[in-house]
């Protein structure tokens, strides 16, 4: 089996993502660039049909042009979005698309996600992209157009209107780490806005020196 250890690791991260409410049964998908020629990727219906309980042999090996060469199951229809990321950002090592519970509030309302935690500051802007139907070429093109404007060091994250989140980083573990940081930040942001609305807290514009390497 090609890339056995990498496929095993992807199974572990995929299950953790589901169990920790960083995606739901409505979907989500992950890809990892293992060589310049090959990706490994979760199959379609991994959440709805399997609740993200995958076996290594169910992780697909895919060429950089989107052709499956190994693995049980079918390609997700979101593969065009993943391929658009790797084409636009050759330095990308992993792409996570998920439906995280707290961040979905901002994605569904079309709001940018403000930073309240130091752990997400290095992302810079986390905006919500204009709506494009799930799995469509329009969505892949929308993501690609945005990434062409964000040619800088990874990680990069963006929300997809009424759909979910996209996190891109150098490796699978780094991308998942950032997904969790974003989700905790979203939880804090929601409560901060509630506290502000209730008059219990007021935002200020104090400039702080953040650790951008953490």
Automatic annotation (TrEMBL):
Sections of the chain in a coiled coil: none
Gene Ontology process terms (BP): pentose catabolic process
Keyword line: Lyase, Metal-binding
Group of enzyme by EC: lyase
UniProt EC number: 4.1.2.17
GO cellular component terms, A-Z: cytosol
Positions of the Class II aldolase/adducin N-terminal domain: 8-190
GO function term, MF aspect, one: L-fuculose-phosphate aldolase activity
UniProt name for this protein: L-fuculose-phosphate aldolase
Natural source organism: Brevibacillus fulvus
């Amino acid at each position: 089996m090609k890339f056995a250890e990498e496929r095993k690791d992807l199974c572990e991260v995929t299950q953790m993502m589901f169990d920790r409410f960083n995606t739901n049964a409505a979907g989500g998908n992950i890809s990892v660039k293992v060589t310049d020629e090959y990706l490994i990727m979760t199959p379609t219906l991994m959440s709805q049909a399997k609740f993200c309980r995958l076996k290594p042999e169910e992780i697909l090996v895919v060429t950089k042009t989107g052709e499956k060469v190994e693995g049980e199951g079918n390609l997700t229809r979101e593969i065009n979005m993943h391929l658009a990321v790797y084409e636009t950002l050759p330095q990308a090592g992993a792409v996570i698309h998920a439906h995280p519970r707290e961040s979905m509030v901002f994605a569904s309302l079309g709001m940018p996600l403000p930073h309240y935690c130091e752990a997400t500051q290095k992302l810079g802007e986390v905006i919500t992209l204009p709506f494009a139907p799930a799995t469509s070429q329009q969505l892949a093109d929308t993501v690609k157009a945005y990434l062409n404007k964000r040619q800088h060091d990874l990680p990069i994250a963006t929300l997809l209107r009424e759909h979910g989140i996209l996190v891109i980083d150098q490796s699978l573990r780094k991308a998942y780490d950032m997904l969790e940081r974003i989700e905790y930040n979203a939880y804090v942001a929601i409560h901060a806005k509630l506290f502000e609305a209730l008059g219990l807290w007021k935002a200020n514009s104090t400039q702080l020196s953040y650790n951008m390497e953490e």
